[in-house]
Amino acid sequence: MSETADRSPARVAAAVVLGIVAILLIVVSILYFTQPAHSLPSILGSIKSPVHRADEKRSLRGVITLVVALVCLAGCGFAFLWKGRDRN
Fold first, then answer.
1. What does each C-alpha distance from 41 to 22, 23, 48, 49, 66 come to in angstroms?
2. pLDDT digits (tens, 9 = 90+) for 6-65
3. Alpha-helical regions (H) of the chain
4. How far apart are alpha carbons 76 and 8 in whole angstroms?
5. Residue 87 half-sphere exposure, CB side, CA atoms within 13 Å?
6. Which of 10, 12, 72, 77 has the smallest set of CB atoms within 10 Å of its CB?
7. DSSP state at residue 57
8. Which among 36, 40, 42 has a CA at the least distance from the CA of 54?
9. What is the C-alpha separation between 41 and 77, in angstroms, rounded?
10. Between vectors from CA 36 to CA 30 and to CA 38, what angle results, nearest 5°?
11. Closest among 60, 64, 65 to 23, alpha carbons compared
């Protein structure tokens, strides 16, 4: 029996989706750490005023996004590597 025969297509699809979400969240986390608040895309919560907050980086959101990305990455690994019981 091949190794891929033990995995259901739904579990493989879930692993792929979780992997893609994790990669996107890592990219967003990098944006939060590297870009000032006024340079972020509007979907990520851009701040234009007050000016003293517009030049700050959104590091708390970056940390939270990175933690969620790591949880998604762990879920991806679990969904892809876990094998069910042998039901013979």
1. 19, 18, 11, 15, 18
2. 778 888 999 999 999 999 999 999 998 998 888 888 777 777 667 666 767 788 889 999
3. 9-34, 51-54, 59-81
4. 14
5. 3
6. 10
7. B
8. 36
9. 30
10. 125
11. 65
